[in-house]
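User: Second chain of the day. Same drill as before.
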Amino acid sequence: MLPGQAKRITMHEAFIARQEMARPLIGVHIWDREYRKMYRETNATIPEKGEVRPEQIETERFLRDVERLLSMNEQIGGDLYWPVVPYVYIPWMEAIIGCPIYSSENTFYAKPCIDSWSDFREDPDLSGNTWLAKLLELQKALVKKIGGAYPLSSSSHLRGPVDMMAAALGQTRLPLECYDNPERIQAMCASYSRAFLEVAHMQNEITATAGFGGSTVNGYGVWTPQVCQYVQDDAMAFLSPDIYTTFVAHNHATIARGFPSIFYHLHPVSLFVLDQLLAMEKMSILEINREPEAIGPSIRELMPAFKKTLEHGKCLLINFTQGAVGMGLFERELELICDTLPNKGLSIYVMAEDAEDGARRMGVLQEVLAKRGSPTS
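Assistant: Same format as last time:
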């Protein structure tokens, strides 16, 4: 283990066990909007526009990008590890269930693959799936190249069953199908939940062979000795509370039972599911976004959800998303968090535009904590 890692790991253990802590767990990572600049080696063989094929992602190029980005992010400091995963911008689950993947100037995206219900197949055989093969190839390469010296994320950025349905059917069509074809939606949500479990477990098993031990959570870098599986379903924003309860909640519960613990990524627009998530035993960490200022809501407005999460015995990660707020408001909202919430089970995560922005935001974070007598080193 690298120098200083034992103390860092101890901080993570205290966080997930919700022990008393001198300060929250903190981290600042660079997430540039220009994904081609972030992964310049990887993208050299991927078309700038048009359909993307798994063979266009070259493993050696990708590994060079990971090493550079890992070094850059570690220089900022903090407790949270930079999440080491197969190419994070690829919509892996959407690709695996059959959606064609396209690149654009700013992102990768999936096109719907279920034009009519005759196109839908429950529980397809994944044995010859080329996107899954590429995903597992990259995970194995990360274990071999990095996994002895630095913790890897247990799985990559795998979107959940609602996001998969929205990709397969289209975001506009999904809520309509909940009314027009409820039995088919029930079957699809269950099928995609099983696919999620199958793919995640395949990745988890590969990561478990890494020499560092334990693993981190995709996207945020919380280290845990056993798998804490990342789950995301942003497309819940297109659904109602009743639709969530009828079609999705029991599938989320099934996914949660499939792992030692769950880290759930939640946008404020989907907070209507918070109570049901908090009732799930294995739901151990809730991440709630502080969205960009123009979108909101503010930290003060989110405070009841933060308090409820912690009062239910769950850990809370507050995510200041990329470019969320200017420095002045950032400092004031950090002060509000530190003055209002207990340190026990609390983590503050910040997405930075670049290395300079990351250093500035880490400096503000450390200054706020220092004023409250909380050491950051």
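The longest strand covers residues 283-290.

User: Great, on to the next one.
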